[in-house]
Each structure stands twice: as structure tokens, then as C-alpha cells.
Design brief:
Layout lengths: L1 H32 L5 E5 L2 E8 L5 E5 L10 H6 L6 E5 L15 H15 L5 E6 L2 H11 L4 E7 L6 H5 L16 H6 L2 H7 L9 H11 L2 H12 L1 H9 L9 E6 L5 H15 L6 E6 L6 H4 L1 H16 L1
Parallel strand pairs: 3-4, 3-5, 5-6, 6-7, 7-8
Antiparallel strand pairs: 1-2, 2-4
Length: 316
């Protein structure tokens, strides 16, 4: 028994050394090959990283889901400059951006985005694109600064009624908060990196783009920010509900239609997502039959097509 315990302790020690070495080498390599893209701007005492490219009007502003990273939009960011200007950013606490004040509600995020665009000299009109939980943030932005918003694209966006309709907790990451004290260990021993490395690279992302996305989310600050944002989801839903409609501004609701459960598909696609299209008198839903929830990864071309249509309508 003593021999077995020594062997087990030795194996655990060796595994720990391997993990520490693996993370140290991988992190050094990533820092060398993945420099910051974009520019930092001070917003109320913390810096937010903004990436803009292209020329023309309206300016398209991309808002990520709970990942909060501008890098998730890489294929869209590369394509939109062919016909207008586009900006993506890392929300406070993610990627290259510094943490911001709590709580991380949609209202706080919208106010920070508004200040960021002003600091960067990005002038309206703008077209807002919100994916998943980012749909709450762009709706709240339009409610606060509606005179600047010329149109919107919602990308399988969260709906204020989804928790009640699907009978799940408002905070989707509530169970994972128990692991927060162990994040430094999970990071330093390379466990976070390995968990992301298991995800297959989407076909629309280059190896470097995918490496950048994983590098920016593989850190303690980004993971903690993810948990803080998830804690505000119920408040975000209420803020989005109270933000009003878009009037007659053009709106496209892109919906992933690939759901094996017919009842889930009926509620999500035919009810909740279809209802979002009624936020505007010029709103319409586009169902992508062979795509799931992660449209920015699975079919970014559909997002670019929707943005092109909304930008054209906004100019007219």
C-alpha cells in the first residue's frame, strides 16, 4: 500500500509538472505570434479594445454573445469592409480589454459601447449586430441611443422569455460558479487550454484566427467576466424587454433551425425567434435550416448577407 501511494503521488507530481510546463510554453508561444489587434480606448477608467476596418456608412458594430470577444467575428470582420465600415470589440474583462465596473448588465455594456465609439470617433448612423446574449445588449443600446441606430441584425439572439418557456435557470452558468476558486489552478496547469483545444476549428476560421480566439478566452480574467455577465442575464432580459421597439428601422432575425427536438424547434424558431422579428415594422426572420445556435462559427456568410441587406436599406 505504501508503494502504491508513493507511485500515485509521483504520478500526480509528474502530471502537475507536465501541465505547468505545457501551459508556460504554449502561453509564451501565443504571446509571440498573437499580438494585439485593434486600439485601446479609455472608457471611464478602463481600456476597451476596438477593431475597425473599411470605409463607408453606416458603420456596422458587432456585439458578441457571452464569450464577449471580438475575435469570434473574424470572418465577418474580414468580409464586411467590402461594402461598408465595420467595428468589433472585446467587452470589458474579455480579451484585450480591461475589467469594468459591476454589475455587468446590458445597460452598463451599452453605455460603455456608446462611450467607446465616441472616443474612437466612430460616428452614426450605425447598424447593430448582436449574437445570442449580445442580442440583449444591442436592443438596450437601441433603446438608449435610438437616434444613432439605423438598423439591426439579431443572430439567434436571446429572448426575454426563453428561461420561462424552456424551464431552465435564468443564469445558464450558475452551476459552474462553484469552480471559480479553482480557475488559477485550471489555468496554470493547462486544463483550460486543453478544454478549448478539444473544440474543432470551424471551417470559416483560419488556424491563426482560431488560435487567437482560444488564446483570448484561455485566461482567468475572461472566465471570471463570463461568470459575472451570466449573473446578470435575468436583469438583461428585463432591460431588453423594456427597451421598446425599433419602429420602422430595418431588422433581420437570423435563426438557427437545426434542432432535433420538434418541440424545442417550435418554441425557439417558430415562436420566440419569430416574435423578435416583430420588433420592427420592417423586420423579417431568416431561418437557416442546417445551422445551430453558433451561426458566427457555422455560417458567417449568412450574417454578412444580412448585414449587406440592412446596410443598403439603412442608406435608403
Amino acid at each position: 500500500m505504501r508503494y502504491l501511494l508513493k507511485t500515485l503521488a509521483g504520478a500526480l507530481l509528474l502530471t502537475g509538472v507536465v501541465g505547468l510546463t505545457y501551459e508556460a510554453i504554449a502561453a509564451h508561444r501565443d504571446r509571440a505570434r498573437l499580438p494585439r489587434r485593434g486600439c485601446p480606448f479609455d472608457v471611464d477608467g478602463h481600456k476597451l479594445n476596438l477593431v475597425c476596418s473599411g470605409q463607408g456608412t453606416p458603420t456596422v458594430v458587432l456585439e458578441a454573445g457571452l464569450t464577449g470577444l471580438g475575435a469570434m467575428w473574424s470572418p465577418v470582420q474580414s468580409a464586411v469592409p467590402q461594402f461598408t465600415r465595420v467595428c468589433s470589440y472585446d467587452r470589458a474583462g474579455y480579451g484585450w480589454s480591461e475589467p469594468g465596473p459591476l454589475p455587468r448588465t446590458s445597460r452598463q455594456i451599452a453605455q460603455e459601447l456608446h462611450a467607446l465609439l465616441a472616443k474612437a470617433g466612430e460616428t452614426p448612423p450605425i447598424v447593430l449586430v448582436g449574437s445570442s446574449a449580445g442580442g440583449y445588449h444591442v436592443r438596450v443600446y437601441a433603446g438608449l441611443y435610438g437616434e444613432q441606430v439605423a438598423g439591426m441584425v439579431l443572430v439567434d439572439a436571446s429572448h426575454p422569455d426563453q428561461a420561462a418557456r424552456f424551464h431552465f435557470p435564468a443564469n445558464p452558468l450558475q452551476e459552474k460558479e462553484r469552480w471559480e476558486p479553482f480557475l488559477p489552478i485550471l489555468y496554470r496547469f493547462g486544463i483550460l487550454r486543453l478544454s478549448f483545444a478539444r473544440e474543432a476549428r470551424p471551417a470559416h476560421f483560419s488556424k491563426l484566427e482560431w488560435a487567437e480566439l482560444n488564446y483570448l478566452r484561455d485566461n482567468i480574467t475572461s472566465m471570471r467576466t463570463l461568470l459575472r455577465e451570466a449573473e446578470s442575464i435575468a436583469e438583461d432580459a428585463a432591460e431588453a424587454r423594456n427597451s421598446g421597439t425599433l419602429g420602422d428601422r430595418p431588422l433581420i432575425v437570423l435563426t438557427g433551425g437545426r434542432h432535433p427536438d420538434p418541440e424545442v424547434r417550435r418554441i425557439w424558431v417558430d415562436d420566440l425567434q419569430a416574435g423578435l422579428a416583430h420588433l420592427s415594422s420592417r423586420g423579417r426572420q431568416v431561418v437557416l435550416a442546417n445551422v445551430g445556435h453558433e451561426i458566427p462559427f457555422e455560417d458567417p456568410d449568412a450574417i454578412v448577407t444580412a448585414i449587406r441587406e440592412i446596410a443598403r436599406a439603412a442608406r435608403n
